[in-house]
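Subject: Sanity check before I submit

Could someone independently write out the structure tokens for this chain? I want to compare against mine line by line before I put it in a report. The sequence has 312 residues.
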Amino acid sequence: MPLDPQIAAILALFAQAGSGSIAGGTPEQARRMFTTMTVELRDPSTLAAVRSVQNTTIPGPGGDIPIRIYTPDLEGQVPTMAFFHGGGFVIGDIETHDDHARLICRDVGIVVVSVDYRLAPEHKFPAGFEDCLAATRWVGENIAALGGDPSQIVVGGDSAGGNLSAAVALATRETGPKLAAQFLIYPGVDFTEDGDYPSRIENAEGYFLTAEDMLWFREHYLAGDLDSNDPRASVIRADLAGAPPAIIGTAEFDPLRDEGEAYAKALADAGVEVRLQRYDGMIHGYFGLGVHSAGAAAAAADMNNSLRELLG
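---
Independent answer below. Compare away.
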């Protein structure tokens, strides 16, 4: 399928504006550029309405972790998601992904606890993972105060956040809380060089996330080859038996497409319930492009509907 024309127009505008590569600068420059693109140019009127938004902090292994709690306009107990933002483990925060969290909260009818975990390279792996695991345990311990159903706790996130969600879903199998689902939006799941992923070559340039960017993120996040083989980072290398049901969304023109789909197969082979949804014509980042592309909006809505159906 050809690239979605509305997304193609966005990419053309970026090219005409001479938007620099993430990998071409420092982490601080990349964070600033990403904030400009996602927050400062955002029209607040396009954000999904929710009942309430609360900023607070919770204890973490490296100090207090900022979180933002989104509550849907529903009565009674509802599911609850610990949400981990994308950004290659180096950029992004609860502000850049305010639109993602609001959309999930409204469309799924779920409390969303968005987690501002520590970023690399200041805090390399496994700091971000440890924060996300601590936040998920906090959700489980405080589920009543959140208005949540203790039988319907979910982890979810996009890109790097999808990786962190998958890692937390595996870590909580024995320690709890028991998870009802993992919601993985174009996740990266393999930092090793062993996988056969043609999409990393086919979609290496021209579709927002580049192969150069991926290498830059990897070098900032991991300390070395030992980390790349750690199953908390390369989750596809882990024992996946007993993982919670998964919804995985991939994009046709995404360098991460093939490893996300390989992860879906690995989960299924381990006996895990999986719903894999590839969105043709889409690029990495489609979940946040709904205001620019009808196709991206439909893809995000489809993923959210799948989670709502899974949770009943």
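---
OP: Matches mine. For the report I'm noting this point. Residues 294-311 form the longest helix (18 residues).
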